[in-house]
Amino acid sequence: xSASVSIGEPKSGREKTALILAGPTASGKSxxxxxxxxxxxxxxxxxxxxxxYADLTLLTARPEADDLAAAPHRLYGVLPATDxxxxxxWRELAVAALEQTEGLPILVGGTGLYIRALxxxxxxxxxxxxxxxxxxxxxxxxIGPEVFHAEVAAFDPEAAARLPVGDxxxxxxxxxxxxxxxEPISSWMKRPRSGPPAGWRFVTAVVEPTRxxxxxRINRRFDLMMGKGALEExxxxxxxxxxxxxxxxxxxxxxxxxxxxxxxxxxxVEQAKASSRQYAKRQxxxxxxQLPDALxxxxxxxxxxxxxxxxxxx
Length: 314
Description:
This protein folds into two domains: 16-122 and 194-313, 3-Layer(aba) Sandwich (Rossmann fold), CATH 3.40.50.300; 130-189, Histone, subunit A (Orthogonal Bundle), CATH 1.10.20. Helix content is 52%, strand content 9%. It contains 14 helices and six strands. Strands 3-2-4-1-5-6 form a six-stranded parallel sheet, sandwiched between helices.
């Protein structure tokens, strides 16, 4: 296909167009995003919750130097791990990036909550003071994650049922919202959402490899990560608070367990691959249910996939 496809700029009075290119981890969406950017003069905007942090490159599968040089990229490695980013903050950063982008913005990532935040916005939420936020964090630390989860379940059983004990960030958010308002966060979340950013329309495409291909890619990619120094990368963040979002990036908990001498290295690698495969399955399920009208792209038929995307963007 020829380069320089003119897409993204609105005709007079029309909304601007952005592409959301989603898919499970290791599906090939980053490479496809670069191909689309090269053919449209577009810019890639990160929609992955782990890749926004600067501390890890290999273990978050963040684009490496050659990829970053192949097309303009935004919101990759822009925050330290000690500065947690939630969906609302990411949306603010992403909207700013959209407005600053010439040509087609291409949002590439697999974080469903981020994608939903951009497309649908948020329900109204109460203001939470810094004091209440600090109190929530201190409370969890004082009573431990299991008791903290039970405490959230006591006033918001719906939220507790969908949030595992280890989902520190969202459980703290549930606690602080209830503390600030006296109303469970699950009730707040049922209120109408604010909608997409004004003046934008989103075309969605999901990269869908077969399960066999996806598992092969996940296993091969993690082996490549290990060969490039993923273990040393994990060691570099071992001193950080384990409750930080980045510390739950695929492969990090397993390699840190090895560094603490809790398991051997072969077991850590196999567990990391298994966790990645399970995560990919959850992502695929989410995209199927939450983005039912998205274009489905077979990575083995990239030319046909590009044609489908360009036809929808036009």
